[in-house]
Amino acid sequence: MPKYLLLARNSTEPKAPPSPEEMQALGAAWGAWMSKFRSAIVTGGDGLQPGGRVIKDGIVTDGPYVEAKEVIISFTLLQADDIEAALAIARECPGGLCFELRELAGYA
Amino acid sequence: MSEPRALVEHFFRHESGRIVALLTRSMGVRRLAMVEDVVQSALVQALETWSRRGVPDDPAGWLYRTARNLAIDAIRRERALAQALPRLVEGADCESSPVDPHFEDEIGDEPLRLLFVCCHDAVPAESRIALALRTLCGFSTAEIARALLTTEANVQKRVQRARDRLRELDVGFETPAPAELRARLDAVLSVIYLLFSQGCHATHGEVPIRRDLCDEARRLARMLAAHPIGEVPAVHALLALMGFHAARFLARLDSDGTIVLLEAQNRAAWDWSEIREAMEWLARSAIGDELTRYHVEAGIAWEHCRAPSFAQTDWNRVVELYEILDQIAPSPLTTLNRAVAVSYLLGPRAGLDRLESIPPESVPARYPGWPAVIGELNFRLGRFADAERAWREALRGTTTRADREFLARRLDLCRSG
After folding, report:
1. The complex's ipTM?
2. Which domains does chain A have, with CATH numbers?
3. How far A94 CA lies from chain B's nearest CA (Å)?
4. Does the pTM exceed 0.90?
5. Residue of A19, A32, A74 lying closest to B140 (CB–CB)
6. Is B268 exposed, middle or buried (0-12, 13-18, 19+ CB in 10 A)?
7. Which of B48, B375, B383, B384 has its CA 20 to 30 A from that of A85?
């Protein structure tokens, strides 16, 4: 079965933080999503801490990129019959994030 | 291991307030903004980690440890900065041992203690309640806006002002004398009252009654009543008021979670042990000559509990009490409730006249309760088209499922009526 990388991006625009209760609701929605697609979600995905480094032409700078409108905040590995099936899973993912879905090439 | 959704309802809301209170106690009130930030970060981490790995065995402890570690990191960075800039470290001793807000007759309960801090008299009055609801009760900006009948932008400004002010107070956060604590008591009671009201009639989310908010409000009030500062009639009256309302909770919802109006409630389903306890508080509140809004509202709630049936309610007395309430604590809500009471005493036309005599600028915007009552009074007058129009307006403003379903049922009645 082909595998897909689901990258979640979030806006860097400052916004009012959600209330604890809204966060809890979001957590519940995430939990529901993860358990619904348990068989499709491959172990190893994770969220990303803010910050990091960018290496380009040997020059290291602090990331993520202050000028960027969106930053990657998490990655999830999915297995699905085809990209449409993977897309259906991604569509149900809560949180109003922007997603990028890519099929793994299978080199590794 | 349970799913995150299996966590008790509003666990985050409770825990965030409690952790903010605990950390503020050890880190100092002037670090309130930092503490709120780290608690927020801990919640985000919980959200991400728990979603992927399941909820830990001791979620509250996990949250507290995560927030505390983040706070320690933040203070380390603060100190590293201070060491790099020696000119800034004058008074570094204070940096490392934050001044504790300390009350005479120590208030043992952390949330209650922070509640008194939020109600500091140097913080503008309208900001105190907003800050406390946000920080301690975990209310969203939208919920606070509803509770205070104002806009979200206003709430944000108020919270910001309160935080700025508390930071400016800085190290010299002196021990408030009992007299000062007493001066803050009014604001503290307002917060507890709003917390309870929000629980009784939730303006957001799926459940119309949030027992958790009501329970926390009553817990805070009981802690307060057990403290010398809080051993005053106003606190006892507030406890009575909350008890009378809590007694009716079970009867207020039908089996599918829709609101049951007072007139249709099964009075046998009221919790009489709650009512008895509330009566004891009411008796204690009558000691002395202080008359607060809580006394009057508890009196109104008692009138309802006392009546053997809706029809036998002493509306004369209820209207009288609303008139007193209007004098000591005028608010659009009092005006509205008074008009309803008048409508049962003198008929719906009299109630409607009351409401129609209110100038439009005094009618709270975005408050769906107002058109809902106008609809009800018109319905009772047999003016179904007017009732429908008002109920539709109310429906546009509602934010909860229970309210929507309730109004939808009323609208059905209009059509069949």
Report:
1. 0.70
2. 3-14+23-103 (3.30.70.1060)
3. 12
4. no
5. A19
6. exposed
7. B48
